[in-house]
């Protein structure tokens, strides 16, 4: 079976993807500094995997270190090569993801996200690994009024976080165009991943104050914060709140594996791929659905619009559906149910 290196594998999306990789029989090597995660997430991944009947006796090995540390990264690849465990493909999640922090600390974002990726690409080149799935983001797109965003929509990130993601996409394209032995790279532009594994054993555990809507809903439901701030109720939508495209993290994990497998078996290319359901949900609908399926109240207030927010950010996912035959299907109800199960069972995170 193939060996997959997962950077940032202890994080929210990474841990769910590691679980699915193990379930599908891959050997998994995680590189993570734990700057925004806990090693316990991977212990839980192993626990869930072991609890499955007929689980594969495959490996999950963790290398703690920073992508900015070239020696460390070199040693990871070298030591695996020495024991005949060449890395066949990489899923690259490691990076910083807070939009607001990227505005206040842009250098930290450019350094971690872009330099970290360059170090990884240098090692991949050195050790002849040319299959990569990269975590990009819908933040690379320009604001649109009410049209679905396709991979051909205008590109114009409006914050440093989005700019780092776009820069990495450009780097990947440049490498693809320059190389004779053309690599196979995919940049996945995620929309809004939420939810958790249905066991409630792993989920999103942001360090510090969360930025995204779903962890804030969970915190409000739990009473950690008094009320949820909804930015603006004067958007041109049915209830005045903005529309987003939420995707269950397990659907997202599945996409990574399907895309990686496609890279293994197709001829070389570089693709950008939208990863969303194509279904728009208003923030208020998300809150109401959460309240309905969990029976827990989420007090909220409306505040002014936040600068940089758009009205309608929904994926045209037809490329994903047609080309890869994948259609994310887990419902908003299940996203809310699973997310709440994780939070209720682990009120303090890992
Ligand atoms: N969650 C979202 O809403 C979302 C949306 C679009 C894109 N993304 C991207 O997907 C990726 C994963 O997101 P997530 O939600 O799982 O985030 P996360 O913060 O939970 O996971 C990122 C992981 O990377 C690790 N990490 C960070 N910098 C590192 C470094 N220099 N060296 C080694 N490890 C490092 C962290 O410790 C963490 O375990 C990120 O690149 C993020 O930008 C996330």
| Spatial strand order of the main sheet | 3-2-1-4-5-6-11
What is the CATH C-level name?
Answer: Alpha Beta
The assigned structural class equals alpha/beta
Computed over alpha carbons, the radius of gyration is 20 Å
Overall domain count: 1
Q: CATH homologous superfamily? A: NAD(P)-binding Rossmann-like Domain
First-last Cα distance: 30 Å
Q: What's the number of extended β-strand segments?
A: 14
CATH architecture: 3-Layer(aba) Sandwich
Helix-strand sequence: EHEHEHEHHEHEEHEEEHEEHEEHH
Distinct ligands:
nicotinamide-adenine-dinucleotide
Largest sheet: 7 strands, parallel
Count every helix, treating DSSP H or I runs of 4 or more residues as helices. Answer: 11
The global form is globular
Task: Provide a compact summary of the structure.
The protein is of the alpha/beta class. The chain is 41% helix and 17% strand. The chain has helices at 12-23, 40-51, 70-82, 99-104, 106-126, 160-178, 213-222, 249-265, 283-294, 318-324, 332-345; strands at residues 3-7, 27-32, 60-64, 89-92, 131-137, 184-190, 192-194, 228-231, 243-244, 246-248, 270-275, 281-282, 300-303, 312-313.
Please give a structural write-up:
The chain has 350 residues and is an alpha/beta fold. It has a single domain, classed as Rossmann fold. It contains 11 helices and 14 strands. The strands form 4 sheets. A 7-stranded parallel sheet has the order 3-2-1-4-5-6-11, with helices on both faces. A 3-stranded mixed sheet has the order 12-9-14. It has a two-stranded parallel ribbon with strand order 7-10. Helix 2 links the parallel strand 2 and strand 3 (60-64). Helix 1 (12-23) packs across helix 8 (249-265), helix 3 packs parallel to helix 5 (106-126) and helix 9 crosses helix 11. The chain is globular and about 55 Å long. The two termini are 30 Å apart. The model has no long low-confidence stretch (mean pLDDT 95). Nicotinamide-adenine-dinucleotide binds next to helix 1, strand 2, helix 5 and strand 5.
